[in-house]
Amino acid sequence: MDPIRRSSTLRLTGLLCLLFLVFFSRGFASHDVVSEKSSGTTQEDSRSQANSTAHKKTFPVLSFNYEHVRTPFEISLWILLALFMKLGFHIIPTVSHIVPESCLLIFVGLLVGGIIKATGEQPPILDSNLFFLYLLPPIILDAGYFLPMRPFTENIGTILMFAMVGTLWNVFFIGGMMYAVCQIDAAKLAHVDLLSCLLFGSIISAVDPVSVLAVFEEIHINELLHILVFGESLLNDAVTVVLYHLFKEFAHEQAITVTGAVLGVISFFVVSLGGVMVGVIYGIVGAFTSRFTSYSRVIEPLFVFLYSYMAYLSAEIFHLSGIMSLIACGVIMRPYVEANISHKSYTTVKYFLKMWSSVSDTLIFIFLGVSTVAGPHTWNWIFVIFTVIFCLVSRVLGVIGLTAFMNKFRIVKLTKKDQFIIAYGGLRGAIAFSLGFLLNNNEIKNLFLTAIITVIFFTVFVQGMTIRPLVELLAVKKKKESKESINEEIHTQFLDHLLTGIEDICGHYGHHHWKDKLNRFNKTYVKRWLIAGERSTEPQLISFYNKMELKQAMMMVESGSAAKLPTIVSTVSIRNVQAKGSPKPSRAISKSREEEIRRVLRANLQNTRQRLRSYSRYELLNDALEDDISEARFRKQKEMERRMSHYLTVPANRQETPPVRKVFFQQEHKVYTYDDSESPRGRASPSCADDVSELKETPEKPDQSSTPRANRDAELKPKEQDDQGDQLKVSRCLSDPGPNPEDDEDSTFLP
Amino acid sequence: MQCISFEQIGVLHKRFKQLSHNEETLRRDHFNEIDDLAFNPIRAQIIEAFFDRRNFHQNGEGKVQEIGFEEFVVVMSHFRPPSAHMTEEQRGKTRREKLRFLFNMHDTDNDGIITLEEYRHVVEELLSRSGTLEKETAKCIADAAMLEVASISVGHMEPDEFYEGITFEHFLKLLERFEIESRMIIRFLNMDTTTLCK
């Protein structure tokens, strides 16, 4: 009890200190904003004075010049604040279980804004430029790059329906109803005309990807619902952009013309398809560039980021949908880039994207809080309340109506529960705020901004907080743990081909037929251009298999340094699976000889086990034989083993990374082979299957010195030795430019 | 078995007549004439599935040389979309049916078990279009897959024991996370709007 309490109080005090530090520096920084003007002139004075009276003044050992680092300093301080907040919420887990992170961040923003205002300064507002150009793209890129393609394409019809038709419905319903509300005399809102209301509707209707991501990520809902809401939030950007600009233009002219409406429709297609095309172009160029980046691996990740960012900016130049462009670029680029770049670059890309999107996300919510405190508000009870009500109502109606329509075409129908979650997950966020902020400055703007902020707060706080208990209450399906299974991958591919075949037999050019055609086109033409080297012809199953093995290898290496051992569930080895009569080059060994060898080797395990204490990954298990074998005999056994290497399992070569030969089946399995090329007999071509063997292992707590659970494999156990033996190599069945060969000595590729 | 609507039977009948050149039965070479199938890596297995008695009714065995319209429809009915309201039991039954179909496709020698050899063959066929296939690759993958099945179904095995192969029960367990009832589906309804002119 005591240490726990001590550590938690320690954490709290640490956190408080951090907060104080940050607030202090914040106050300090913004204090300088005002004093800048006054000090600016004095600085000039002193400088000129210094020049003229240089010989009179002594050399300043320590001087203070805050001005020239002010901007980057303040930016860094804000980001640091965001990071500390994020850290803090995870250190104190109790609150973050109830309240989603986004709420906490907005709250912190409110606090910070309040403090700044209390010190008399004007708190910074979430500048739209800053938001759209710097804060939003990382989040969207992160989402688009890691968009799960299979569920996305399977549900693309529904997603598009919700994004386009759903948003349109929302806009007109909310705009219309708010106009009706404004007609009520009691509201004193008669000056708000229809067009402004429609404009307001277009701002407030769009589901926000940032908020959806922030909330849905924590509730781990099943893939279908996640992709539906999230996909909708991404794709509705086109509708939002078009309607926003449309109504803004019309609001100027105070009239809607028929041509204007027609142009609006055309503009919609231009914006969305144009955005996608810009993204595709940049994606292809990026994929093509990555083909040559093997010459300089270090800059590979930058290409990914820059091409995507350029896609976004280029789309924004023409007022096309930047978000769709970014998504298209990421989606197109990803399969080819991943085949080309090194494993380290892939990790870098992944982590940088996650890092930037995380920081962006945090900053956005904090700034939302600060801006709430800052902005001029025009609070009108009726307007605000009705806005919130109508947002909810229109969302619910829209979802119900669209689902009823879409369910006719869907194989997996959306149930009432699903519909509820979709409707409830329609969160608004910072995009709405920034769009509102871009409006021309007039009295209506403040009214709108207040309402927008209220809706955002309502959705993020109320809906965000209650969605988790509701998900539990309604027993909505949660995300299944993704156990990567080679069998499922095999059957996914098999099913694809089977269904394509059946469609061909039926003569029905359906879904699968076109998908198959696209895949074939991709394989024959596109991949050849965009992927370097031999990877271009690598079938998907093999790349999946390699990726899986690589991942497991990485995990093994990492877990080797940790003290904990994974538990295994099964003691099945490849010997149980391989056919007894499988052809092996016959190496006749007499039974007795074999027994002797086994006994001796088994005995040696006792020795090596002592040496292996630090390598907790291994547990050589056997009935403990008490024989002590001398070192000399040990070495002799090495010789015999090498000769037996073909028939018996080969001892692994132990270097820095202990060779991995083990199977654990909780979540992953691994098949390692030995490279036979060093064995004295040598083989013409290294083969995978025949030499496959695994070591069955059981977990051992590192502090235990007792006999571990017995391995029931009566065959020999390979031992780790410090001297050479045969090298264990991860079998890589095709060339894989994965980890850089010179870095990783344990992995070679079998050509 | 699930019912197929009259409309769908009509469309299928039209297609049957087309494929068989207005004869009464379909033979393997009729299937071979379908151009699109040429690109399919598992086309041999698909065609075989139509001539496999096990897919016609519960206790069938062995292969036939030619099939009539009834058998054609029966095989096609394995790909029916699930009806809107299905009880859990019905859903389970559908799953079993579809997985049984897949199982029969893998188990070519009709012994009720997918052996390592048969599974290797499956993987080889899948990769056969890649061009640079090496048998070793397919063997690796098949071995790994087999290992996974063995470990999922039979947790602990003596080293001397031999895992004969994947039985149907193991197969069910293996693919229990695989939502086969919603994935193994062809939409018959749209057939009349598309080209039937091949």
UniProtKB/TrEMBL annotation, chain A:
Stored Pfam families: Na_H_Exchanger (PF00999), NEXCaM_BD (PF16644)
Signal peptide boundaries: 1-29
Protein localization: Basolateral cell membrane
Keywords: Antiport, Cell membrane, Coiled coil, Glycoprotein, Ion transport, Membrane, Phosphoprotein, Signal, Sodium, Sodium transport, Transmembrane, Transmembrane helix, Transport
Gene Ontology molecular function, alphabetical: potassium:proton antiporter activity; sodium:proton antiporter activity
GO biological process: regulation of intracellular pH; sodium ion import across plasma membrane
Domain Sodium/hydrogen exchanger regulatory region: 569-657
Homology family: Belongs to the monovalent cation:proton antiporter 1 (CPA1) transporter (TC 2.A.36) family.
Stated name of the protein: Sodium/hydrogen exchanger
Organism name: Astatotilapia calliptera (Eastern happy)
UniProtKB/TrEMBL annotation, chain B:
Stored Gene3D superfamilies: EF-hand
Membrane topology: Lipid-anchor
Main location: other
Residues of the EF-hand domain: 94-129
GO aspect biological process, one term: cell differentiation
Locations listed in the record: Cell projection, Lamellipodium; Cell projection, Ruffle membrane; Cytoplasm; Membrane
Keywords: Calcium, Cell membrane, Cell projection, Cytoplasm, Differentiation, Lipoprotein, Membrane, Metal-binding, Myristate, Nucleus, Protein kinase inhibitor
MF annotations from Gene Ontology: calcium ion binding; protein kinase inhibitor activity
SUPFAM superfamilies the record matches: EF-hand
Any one GO cellular component localisation term in the record: ruffle membrane
Alphabetical list of InterPro entries matching this protein: CHP3, EF-hand-dom_pair, EF_Hand_1_Ca_BS, EF_hand_dom
Homology family: Belongs to the calcineurin regulatory subunit family. CHP subfamily.
Protein name, per record: Calcineurin B homologous protein 3
Organism encoding this protein: Astatotilapia calliptera (Eastern happy)
